[in-house]
Design a protein that fits this description.
CATH class: Mainly Alpha
Number of helices: 4
Shape: elongated
Mean pLDDT: 93
CATH superfamily: Winged helix-like DNA-binding domain superfamily/Winged helix DNA-binding domain
Strand order of the largest sheet: 1-2
Radius of gyration: 17 Å
CATH topology: Arc Repressor Mutant, subunit A
Number of strands: 4
Helix content: 55-70%
């Protein structure tokens, strides 16, 4: 038995708009410079990745990534400064929640490793 912590950010209507999936997607964009490549590395369709980002951006009110269409000079994506800040804050919050959950778990289930 072990505790599991999943952190999701929800909008005012109770709809999930950010969590581990979107965070991984943004990291993929940072690493590859491409939303399409980031989605492919996760086994996700580009259209789904785009929908996930647009949904989060709508809920947050700011862009997480800027996308440039392909063409002669190629396209690409990059995470915005606000997107990087959200990602850093989300991951810090998630890590703090995991640590707190672990402490509470050991308090309530001290016989568990």
């Amino acid at each position: 038995m072990k505790p599991v912590t999943r952190i999701r950010l929800m909008d005012d209507n109770g709809q999930k708009f950010f969590g581990e999936g979107p965070a991984r997607l943004l990291h993929g964009v940072e690493e590859t410079g491409s939303l399409r490549a980031a989605a492919a590395s996760m086994g996700m369709a580009y259209t789904k990745a785009l929908k996930i980002l647009k949904n989060a951006e709508t809920a947050l009110g700011f862009p997480l990534a800027v996308r440039a269409a392909g063409g002669k000079n190629g396209g690409g994506s990059r995470v915005t400064p606000q997107g990087k800040e959200l990602l850093n804050r989300y991951e810090s919050y998630r890590d703090a929640c995991i640590q707190a959950n672990r402490r509470l778990y050991l308090e309530f289930f001290p016989e568990q490793p």
